[in-house]
Amino acid sequence: MAAVETLFHRQQTDDRWMNTAACKGLTHLFFPPPAERPQARERREAMAKSVCASCAVNRTCREFARTNHEYGFWGGESEDERHEAGFRLIAPIGVRARDAV
Ligand code: SF4
Question: Which residues have a Cβ under 8 Å from the Cβ of 89 and sit 6 or more positions away?
């Protein structure tokens, strides 16, 4: 599907809940840098999880990420945790890609 078609067919969602996100300005905790080492990922995701634990929109955020097959850390959940819960990435890589077939 072409990018223009994707935009045309994108379902509009009510994203106002994002205005009260506790992670504003903390993107570096929620999305990995290139070539992130496993130990660094563990530390980063532990910090992200602690931010999510005090976030007022935690449940809405988790459902949004699961429904939209998001990448990164959302709603107290890592990509791996979403995957294990049955919500797969659209284009998985690495270990998750081997499980997807
Ligand atoms: S639950 Fe976590 S990722 Fe979602 S909006 Fe809140 S702080 Fe951000």
Answer: 69, 71, 79, 82, 83, 96
pTM of this structure: 0.80
Q: Which domain holds residue 40?
A: 20-100
Between the CA of 1 and the centroid of ligand 1 the distance, in Å, is 30
Q: Does the beta carbon of 22 sit less than 6 angstroms from any atom of ligand 1?
A: yes
Residue 65 located in a structural domain: yes
Phi first, then psi, for residue 64 (nearest 5°) are -60, -50
pLDDT number for residue 23 = 98
- Tell me, yes or no, whether 85 lies in a domain: yes
Interhelix angle 38-53/58-68, rounded to 10 degrees, is: 130
